[in-house]
Design brief:
The protein is mostly helical and about 45 residues long. About 55% of the residues lie in helices and about 0% in strands. The radius of gyration is 16 Å and the shape is elongated.
Length: about 45
């Protein structure tokens, strides 16, 4: 029973992380660019 509860909790956390990444992508943000151009080193 403990394994089931732990697995379910882990799936919820992963789903929330993926949801957040999709929302950020739709808003024009990404993992590589935080949107702060003052810190950009011209990598892209």
């Amino acid at each position: 029973m403990g394994t089931l509860i732990t697995g379910t909790g882990l799936l919820v956390v992963i789903a929330l992380a993926v949801r957040s990444m999709i929302r950020d992508k739709k808003r024009g943000k990404s993992l590589q660019c935080g949107g702060d151009c003052s810190k950009c080193r011209g990598c892209h």
